[in-house]
Design a protein that fits this description.
74 residues, mainly beta, 3-stranded antiparallel beta sheet, globular
Length: 74
């Protein structure tokens, strides 16, 4: 079975705001990710790490003003 997921998040920030997301699915023996993408607008630096449970996490500081995140995975 093939599943496609998408997520669209839109924010209006008053000040630069630290955020942590879990935007990327894990690929492994129980599920295979064939394609994935995530887009940040505006484009900002992201630090990715794996938490103690094995989840892929993205840490960033969202700028003041409009900020959006779009993800897809198959």
């Amino acid at each position: 079975m093939w599943i496609r997921t998408t997520c669209n998040l839109e924010f209006q920030m008053g000040d630069p705001t630290p955020m942590i997301f879990m935007l990327r699915p894990r690929s492994g023996i129980q599920q295979w990710i064939t394609r994935e993408a995530y887009t940040l607008s505006p484009s900002i630096p992201v630090v990715e790490y794996t938490d103690i449970f094995g989840n892929l996490c993205q840490r960033m500081v969202a700028p003041a003003g409009a900020f959006s995140v779009h993800t897809t995975a198959d």
